[in-house]
Amino acid sequence: MLAVFESPLNGRVLRAHAEGPCRLVELQERIGRTAQTTVRAAVANLLEIGALRKRAVGQSSYAVATELSEAGEEMLFVADEVQAWLALCPQGPIDPDGDRAKEAVKALAGGWSSTLMRALANRPFTLTELAEVIPGVSYPALERRIASMRASGQIAPVRKKGRGTPYVVTDWLRHAVAPLCAAGRWERRHLGEESPPITEIEVEAAFLLTLPLVPLPLLAEGSCVLAAQTDPVEPSARDQRLAGVKVDVARGEVVSSVAEIGGTPLTWAVGTPATWFDMVIDGKLGDLRIGGGNPQLALDLVAGLHHALFGSRQQQLAAT
After folding, report:
1. Considering the entire predicted model, what is its pTM?
2. What pLDDT, on the 0 to 100 scale, is given for residue 317?
3. Residue 320 domain-assigned (yes or no)
4. Which domain holds residue 103?
5. What is the CATH number of the domain that holds 12?
6. CA distance 75 to 187
7. What secondary structure letter does DSSP report for 224?
8. Domain boundary among 69, 102, 123
């Protein structure tokens, strides 16, 4: 669903509807000078995915306005998170209506869907190494995505002896997990069976990318498993598996996080994707299951995930 915001016009159309229902002519007045055919196409797209709905205006059956649906109201939240992330760009705040925004969101969506972000989440990789661990994407396509993410500041090169340039994720890309989570929750709530499955790779990537940003109490110590249920690989399958990370904490800092959750953990936090979305976005524990010998560590970690991505949003923006 994040791909919706590769076109800045979609965000402008949604925000224009926040003022109330409007007909096409009124919508054009609200969003500024844009060709009617272009605006009409954006409205049609948002109607198709359920973010907008039609309503009759007056007595004429031909007089129709569009308004935000419940899904559209929540999509505005996703739009706000995309805009907030763009404002944190280390190269300077990005205008959400400009070409740079389109390029940044497209690069982000491409990096996520291709599992590129998962590969880079825990260590540097060269382009050649990435081509080996992501066989489902052609070398030229992978090269283009690397170039786009580098140009927008989402990944950065690091020095290394030998051939090839390794790339690492930037903190700005780590913060992109916020709009990704908002988009993921929207899909689960409003697309029903058409919602893309939550995969092991996505769960691991989200945890691995965010954990370096997590603030913890100075006395926090120990190991903890953070895990979420994943959707069955086959639509007809019933089995759900757990995916996640094992986190080691020393003196209030995350010192390691690895995508290994086998065995019996000493401390854990486990939940469904819906539970994790609510926890990370809203800070609500809900049905998240926490247990083991050091439950306070698990509580500190999940609270830290919320604070890193959503709880400190205003402070982050105020500092830019």
Report:
1. 0.91
2. 47
3. no
4. 80-176
5. 1.10.10.10
6. 10
7. E
8. 69
